[in-house]
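A protein record pairs a chain with a discrete description of its three-dimensional fold. The shape at a given residue is found from the number at the same position. Here is what such a record looks like in full:
>
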Amino acid sequence: MHDPTAPTNAFDSSIDLPPTVDEAAVRRMRFVTRLLDESVRVPGTEFDVGLDPLLSALPGNVGDAVGAGLSLYIVLESARLGVSYTTLLRMLANITVDVAVGSVPIVGVLFDAVWKANVRNLELALEELAEVGDDDPDAEAVTIEVE
């Protein structure tokens, strides 16, 4: 079983999630996270960046708004999978910090590259989903319909 005290790697597919968790949804969340936060290796380093800092570099706050909209997908999918309201609020706070600081010229692009709100949010969701499986192996995910 998953050790809740161990740090979570958002892209580690060996994390023990309960069988009730929609694996396709988790794969989609990982894809969006990787695309936004870790899709390109910075040459000569072991540091990855994604589209989020690039979007943040667009003039005005258009890029930040687009990035936030894409980031909300992970929150919505997490809600659908039954992640608690407290965790969803933490995820929204991560996006808010990302947008607020990311909108500052020059500094915001660098912050976006380091903050990686989507990786943080995916880790929060996976940790909670794994803990639910650890607490009660017969537990079922809560379904929230989003229209």
Residues 62-81 form the longest helix (20 residues).
